Amino acid sequence: MNIPPVLIAVCFGLNWIIGFTGATHAAVDESLYLTQVKPLLAGRCYACHGALKQEAGLRLDTVELLEQGGGSGPALVAGSPEQSLILQRVATADVAERMPPEHEGETFSPAQVELLRRWIADGAARPAEEQPEPDPIQHWAFQSIVRPPVPVVTNQEWVRNPIDAFIAQRHEAAGLAPTPIAEPSILLRRLHLDLVGVPPDPQVAWQLRQSASTDWYNEMVEQLLADPRHGQRWARHWMDIWRYSDWWGLGEELRNSQKHLFHWRDWIVENVNRDRSYAEMLRLMLAADELKPLDQVDLRATGYLARNYYLFNRHPWMEETVEHFGKAMLGLTTNCAKCHDHKYDPLSQTDYYRLRAFFEPYHVRNDMVPGESRLSNNGIPRVYDGWLDVPTYRLIRGDEKQPDTSQVLGPGLPNFLSWEALQIAPVSLPPAAWQPDRHPWVLENHLRDAQQTLTQAQVELPKAEQATLAAQEHLSAITAKLGSEHESAGNERGDALVEEVAAPLIDDEFTALNSEQWQLLGGQWEHQPGVLLQNQDGPNHAALRWLGELPSDFDATLRFRIRGGSQWRSVGISFDESQVDPLGAATAEDSAQSVYVSAYSGGPKVQASYRQGAQWNYPGEAAVAKNIELDRSYELRLQVRGTLINVFLDQELVLTWRSPLARRAGFLQFTTFDALANIERIHVTKLPANIVLQESQTKELDRNTLVGAKWHADRAALESQFAHAKLRWAQAEVESVRQRGTAAQQMDAATTELRQALVESAVQAERAAELEAARLALIEVELRKFNAPNVTDELKQQLEQATARVQTAEQKLHETATSFTPLVGAKWSATRFLFSGKDDPTVEYPATSTGRRTALANWLVDPRHPLTARVAVNHLWNRHFGQPLVPTVFDFGRNGTPPTHPELLDWLAAELIESGWSMKHLHRLIVNSATYQMAAATSPERMSAGQAIDPDNHLYWRRPSGRMESQVVRDTLLELAGQLDDSLGGPPIPADQQAKSRRRSLYFFHSNNDRNLFLTSFDEASVLECYRREQSVVPQQALALANSELTHEVIPQIADRIIVMAKTVEPANGETVDVVSEAWVRSAFVVVLGRMCTDAELSRCQQAISQWHAQELEQGSLDTTGRSRKIVGNLIWVLLNHNDFVTVR
Amino acid sequence: MHRDQYPHRRQVLSGFAALAAAAMLQRDGWARSADERGRGAEIWQPPNGQPHFPARAKRVIWLFMNGGVSHMESFDPKPMLNKYAGKTIKETPYADVQDPAKLALERLAVPDANGNQRNELYPLQVGYQKYGQSGIEVSDWFPHIALNIDDISVVRSMWTTDSNHGAQTQFHSGRHMNDGSYPNLGAWVNYGLGSLNDNLPQYISFGNREYWNRRDGHYLGPAHDAVPLRVDPNQPLDFAKRPEGTSAESRKIGVELLRDLHQQQAVQTPDDNALSARIAAYELAFRMQQSIPEVFDFSQETEETRKLYGLDLPHCQAFGHQMLAARRLAERGVRFIQVQHGAGGAGSWDAHGALKSNHTSNALAVDQPIGALLTDLKRTGLLDDTLVVFATEFGRTPGSQGSDGRDHHIFGFSVWMAGGGVRGGTVHGSTDEIGFHAVEDRHYVTDIHATILHQLGLDSRRLEIPGRKRLEIDHGQVIRPILL
Question: Does ipTM come in above 0.90?
Answer without folding.
Answer: no
